[in-house]
Amino acid sequence: MEIREIRENKTEFMDLLLIGDEEENMINRYLDRSTLFVVYDSGKPVSLCAVIKIDSDTIEIKNLATFPEYQNKGYATKLLNFVFDRYKENFNSVILGTGENEKTLNFYKKCGFVQTRRVKNFFTDNYSHPIFENGKQLVDMIYLKKSLT
Ligand SMILES: CC(C)(COP(=O)(O)OP(=O)(O)OC[C@H]1O[C@@H](n2cnc3c(N)ncnc32)[C@H](O)[C@@H]1OP(=O)(O)O)[C@@H](O)C(=O)NCCC(=O)NCCS
Q1: Number of domains in the chain
Q2: Which residue from 15, 68, 136, 137 has the fewest beta carbons nearer than 10 Å?
């Protein structure tokens, strides 16, 4: 397993990005200013994390995804820990917004995040079609935060 930092030709990873965020126009809102971290297994990209700098104190994870056939093998957890290590010297905290999906929220809480705020109707206001996860429609965006220090 190898993790590479990607700053150019980021659209090459659109198939992985679309697993974490269903609409390409939403991805294009942050892709240019993102740094991608990609996990390779035997030379093949399997998991990805998109990171932006919010200000001098905080980074935000805009996308986290693993190809379905590679899920539950620990790749996303290793990737998040790599990103925390990479930024902890220069930034104090990491935030992310996600849908109200119990599995996803529990995963992030296990990684040390705590819930901070809710943006009402984010998914219904910003996406062109309803998004369902585990049979439940996503409506609000839940923001989570973790200290890097
Ligand atoms: C969330 C996700 C990135 C985890 O990737 P991964 O490489 O399988 O992660 P790990 O192997 O390190 O950890 C697996 C954990 O993720 C949990 N998980 C969180 N969300 C999940 C989801 N939507 N589908 C399946 N498992 C999910 C699993 O339950 C498991 O938890 P456990 O360790 O308590 O059993 C991956 O499931 C995925 O790409 N999901 C679809 C996109 C998504 O929902 N992204 C997050 C919002 S941006």
Answers
A1: 1
A2: 68
Nearest C-alpha to atom 2 of ligand 1 is from which residue?
65
| Residue carrying structure tokens 């998914």 | 123
Q: Pocket residues for ligand 1 (CB within 6 Å)?
A: 19-20, 47, 63-66, 71-77, 98, 103-104, 107, 110
Domain extent at residue 134: 2-147
Asked if the model's pLDDT at residue 58 lies above 90, the reply is yes
**3-class DSSP string for 30-79:** CCCCCEEEEEEECCEEEEEEEEEECCCCEEEEEEEEECHHHCCCCHHHHH
CA of 109 to the centre of ligand 1 (A): 12
Contact yes or no for 51/61 (Cβ under 8 A) = yes
CATH of the domain at 32: 3.40.630.30
* pLDDT digit string, tens, across residues 62-112: 999 999 999 999 999 999 999 999 999 999 999 999 999 999 999 999 999
